[in-house]
Fold each of these.
Amino acid sequence: MTTRAELTEKIVAHKTFNDIKWSDVAAAVGQSKEWTTAALMGQISLSKEQAYAAGNALGLNFSDEEIALLMTVPYRGSLPTAVPTDPLIYRLYEVVNVYGTTMKALIEEEFGDGIMSAIDFTMDISRKADPKGDRVTIVLDGKFLPYKMY
């Protein structure tokens, strides 16, 4: 019996070895590179058709069991430790630690008491050329959900 974590490792190893881009897999699946990557990393479930399309794009002939794992609603949260140790993920964690209260204050000032949805949500990651070194641009776009009074 394969676990979802083992399937993720298989996908990532195969993708890396064969120099396949997430954006190419996403085009075959019909979703954004961000959504498709999250799904294949085990954080979002795919439809059967999307799972087969991903397998074809990756050149992997997924078993029925693997297709079922890709279709299963996951337990979300991909960090193995409370404080991330991977340097890139830690820097994002640091951004939230340093600027989280600022983001919260500015969102509440603009929208009121509520949260940004991570369900009705999109993300875009892109590269921006800069003579001092290319920049990473991350756009998080979530619907505002006000707390309701009752």
Note: Residues 79-112 form one domain.
Amino acid sequence: MRVISGEKKGQPLKAVPGTTTRPTTDKVKESIFNIIGPYFDGGWVLDLYGGSGNLGIEALSRGVEKAIFVDQNRKAVEIIKDNLKVCSYTDRAEVYRNDAKRALKALIKREVSFTYIFLDPPYAEQKIEAEIGIIHDFNLLASGGTIVAEHDSTIELAEHIGSFSCKRREVYGDTAISFYE
């Protein structure tokens, strides 16, 4: 696993050991950023199921100003911090150990909004539609922003969640990516 493009292009990233975290493959990650980017001029990103920090770090490398990473797994949080340090992004990132729902509620209190939100939960524990509902209800997505939801290809997410619409869906083997705006 590595940073694909931007200022840290080619930088290797550590993966979370074990089988509880399923990293986004480089092929899928490159496709995501070709669709939403490929490069950015600022903005904030939320990597809600951070894992190794792969997606948020890629966004930082491509020009996002700040990233917030959340994962409930202690080892994943350590790996995210290590990867941020190796990339010299610790000053542009915040990392929290928390579950997704509580993290979203904490972010509501901060009154922040994100240009990009990555949702890549474990396939067996997906609550993507409910989480997008919270994001919608509390205006966590900035105007013109995009939610990128990675899920099992057998799952069909709703076409509309609140005022968000699924603008695109791509399938890569057993992985699907749904883009909401």
Note: The mean pLDDT is 92.
Amino acid sequence: MLIVISGPPGSGKTTLAHQVAQAVGCPAICRDEIKEGMAHATPGFVPGPGDPLTMRTLATFFDVLGLFAGRGTTVVAEAAFQDRVWRPGLEPLASQAEIRIVHCEVDPEVAYQRITARSASTPSRSVHEDAYHDKERWVRNHQVFDRIALDVPTLIVDTTDGYHPGLPEIAAFLRR
């Protein structure tokens, strides 16, 4: 099974992905963690739209997911998964693994607070172009987030204050 954890920045995807992976008993592959690791080997890297490191990260992310799916390994895949960018990478994996999507939704103000706090306290976040400096632009981008739309079982989780539905219900959805 390929468990896709998706949502806009600051929606709690990474935290939920690691909790789901622990509950299911499988690895979590997080796109931002891959990029942060790749940035260590790229001195002086400056993030920007479509920068070379971001493009290599995308390819690496799908290579890793393809390897797990091809070997019959359940895996949690976590990224923003906006439909226009991510669908081409996910669709081929549907022939190798059953895909289930857990989409995180969050109040934009809460997401903004999370991402600014995370950026201030976690130096490795500097490799991401989160555009949190302009709050109005960031909120607009949050509101037009184009979530992944595959014809697969999908669960919406509100992460504004905890998880609704909770982790036991999320795990039950994944076992169906």
Note: The chain has one domain: 2-175.
Amino acid sequence: MGGDQKGIEQGTTFVPKFDQQGLLSAVVQDCSTDRILMLAFMDREALDATVSTGVAHFHSRSRARLWKKGESSGNVLNVEEILVDCDQDALILRCRPAGPTCHTGAVSCFYRKLEGGILQPVNS
């Protein structure tokens, strides 16, 4: 899993850098609209499942287990592209959502903005 910093930053070898809890951040973006849909965490198992199936899997911190997005709702995230940041400790999953991403039924989990100390709806 090792590698020098230059190799990590400029090389072609994927060496994901998980944190102390074994997680890395994954931002989910709609590949058609570029809208940010959600933020989640991936462990090695979730990353491997995502890469092998093409469907987004995450590590559920609250349930402490592998979680396939949409496993109960059917609103899966079909992964079109995985972007890796320079330190290989964060990912952007560019996806085609099969329905609303947020458990509230909203298209995106980011459906509010902070304005003057008050949460206001984001216009879609």
Note: The chain has one domain: 20-99+110-121.
